[in-house]
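User: Fold this one for me? It's Beta-lactamase.
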Amino acid sequence: MKKYFVSTMIASSIVSVSYAAEVNYAQIFAGKNACFILYDLNKKKTIEEYNSKRCQERIAPNSTFKVPLSLMAFDKGVITESTVFVWDGKKREMESWNQNQTPRTWEQYSVLWVSQQITPKLGMRTIKDYLAKFNYGNQDFSGDKGKNNGLTHAWLSGSLKISGEEQLRFLINMHNYNLGISHTAIDNTMQNIYLGKLTDDGWDWYGKTGSGRRNTSYQGKTERVRDGWFVGYLQKSGQTYVVVTNLTDIKTPTGSEHDTSGGPQAKAITQDIIKQLQLK
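Assistant: Here's what I get for Beta-lactamase.
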């Protein structure tokens, strides 16, 4: 990960940038309460933002929490790049989870049981210290009310919440090595969230999805809605952007759409928007 000196302040107004194509955000996010932010690290400003009100709303980070958790674990020495997380033999819903894991596959396959091995090793006090150092959302790691399960469930549609704007600030500071942790912890984490080439014109992208489901009230009824995240970076030839997308269904989805998790949907939408913007 190349380091550039950037300000940690986010532009208060959105700067209009001319692209080869206009993006119809309302159409892309139809039926969803959603946020999209594209931040130019070189110019130190937000150049695209959809739904600023939503971008200030906190929701659970879900599996995007694996990014700060990785930073904590590498910085504290709880894991190294050669760590192997041994599968306990229990069959879980994702086939890719049913095997030994590495720090790279933990991020790649978003393996929950690995996170739930790491958090107890770090301990509540250490995690809270890092959350404060990272200024990460509401920093509430207590878990579900009355269940005393913060170490294993706080980030899973639970007590820990963060907004799109706060994710952006965290990612800017991570890129700028401005989190008060070792450079190695950041470099290892970046390596493990590398996703390959985003477009044919050579943009490398890095990032993490997050998916969750929760109950909410809609028109007097309880709806089971999805949350989805994609957070990460785009890099090419010295140019770096930070991208943050999140979405929540306005009401329970129907049909085959109901079976799609929010994180992969947020990732696919992000990819579509970036391709439409035709960044140079």
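One thing worth pointing out: The beta strands are 32-40, 45-50, 194-197, 204-218, 221-236, 239-249.
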